[in-house]
Amino acid sequence: MSKRMPVKHIALTVLCSAVLAACGGGGSPETKLVDNAVAARKVIELIEALDTVEKIDAGDEASIKAAQKAFNNLSNDQKALVSKTSIEKLEAALKALAGLSGNSSNPDAPQTDNANLNANNNSAEIKDDKSLAPLNKPAPVHTSFISSSGAQQHNPHLQLRQVDGKPAFVNNQIGLIRNLDLKKNDTVVLDGAVLTNSAEDNPAIQVNYLTPESSITKYTSAGSTKENISPLFGKEHGIYSEVKTSLDDEIKSQYDEMKKAWEIIKDDKADPKAIAEAKKKVQEALPIYAEDFDYNDFVEIARNHQEAFTEEGMKEMVDNIDADLLNNYHSAAKIAEAWQKIRKGDEQGWETLKQFEPKFTSKLLWRVALDANSNNAIDGMEGSTPKTADVMHGIAYVHKDKNKLAFDKEFDGVYVIKFINGVRVTLHDPAAAGWTEQTFAHYVDLNNLVNHGYQSLGNETPIASVPTEGTATYRGLTTSYLTETGKPARQLTANVVAVADFAKKGLSFKTTNPTFHILENGVRVSTPVAGYEMSGSASWQANSNSFKGQVATKEHGFKGDLNGKFYGSQVDEIGGTYGLSNTTQQLIGGYGAKRQ
């Protein structure tokens, strides 16, 4: 046991000054605020004087108990001024002292009062009693999308991943989504995908791409978007897909180029040089499929080979699709034989190719694989063991129940973006939630051991525009995943209510109506659950638009960190992430809410 003098707590000194400044100096009603700060200061000094955990012995019992008693005697307003670091140190000291007895359940051993220690530890009671002027913003049309020209990679971001073989929350990795650029009624750039909203009077989302091998689909309870992909096959109508992919333009271009090449090659009157050039283009493209197929058959074949959505899983899936096509389509087998002959210098192979005129390359297989994965992942189709990873990620809450009813209109819409390397991004539709400044994304990257990730996205509030007085209530929603090693993840949704006090730089956070969702044969089954309501608080520093704090569930023993940011020019909305855990489970989620 060592003895140390109390250490001056600079953070609280600054806080005391801030309290006095906010009060305009001393004064009778405001004296209570100063008294609270002084009382909290005394407790902090008692905690700071405690030994570190590794030095605690039986001689420290009196000082630890005194610090615990002093903290428990504080009012909630006073506890709000005790830093999280001090609270954690007191908890650790109590646990260390209890451990010395060899029986932490001994009634004579001091117990950690978690309820008291964690109550309002970041902000005093927050009330919306000085409301900012209402925004009175119109609801966004269903095709609208959020606008942001700012960087996204440093927004609130959290991963639940495998670290040394165990699940762990990690928040120091760069955000998956780094670019979300929208000029009003123009384009939204989401790394691999560009959502175009260019019609001023009749806005409608279209999709283009910046990077290859990805697909995008919008899902609601009414179903998915339908893309007319007939032009990829030289037709105007009749072939549809629920995904648009970055491969589509290339497939269409290759089709047109191969069609012209075969017209030249089969023209007996064509210039020999033109024929040679056409053959060169065909050899460079290496088309392996003719037009004698049904696209939907391709997709069904692909679904039979659904693998875990990883880079290796996708490669294996494409190989299996190719093998099935060779067995099921006479033309595919003959074309493959013809290419083997040509590689060996046998020009007879060209006669076979001229017979079938192949126009499609392996790009078509990758498109089919993305399409098939999309259906399985979203619909939660039953499958073999390799399919389990995708079935787990079926988005149940956007489906209808047995009565053909949607769950809730604010939850009714997601954009699903998939990359050929196995990364899946689910972006909550901001228009469905009534948001114009932010949204959040859930993603899975099994290649990099990321089981679940959440990232907040949007147009952040300029720091200078964050108010220094006034209050506001934010209402919105959250989606999350409850995970436990060896068990399927469970989808949990809830409503969010947050109240911010800009003078106190504090925010209260609560969720209500927690509901689990699963899919049974493509039908949503939603079950309200008690005890998963969350409550907590957060705070921010001067010259900041981001807040941090702690949150815990009403029951089940979950507690953890809450992160968020203000979005919009007038702190219009908030968004962020949270990660909680108990002894065996983890709860990771994202949220968004708009000012009332």
Automatic annotation (TrEMBL):
Residues 102-121, 127-154 are annotated as: Disordered. It is found in: Cell outer membrane. One of its GO terms (cellular component) is cell outer membrane. Keywords: Signal. It comes from the Bacteria. The keyword Transport does not apply. Its main location: membrane. Residues 144-154 have a biased composition (Polar residues). The keyword Lipoprotein does not apply. This is Transferrin binding protein-like solute binding protein.
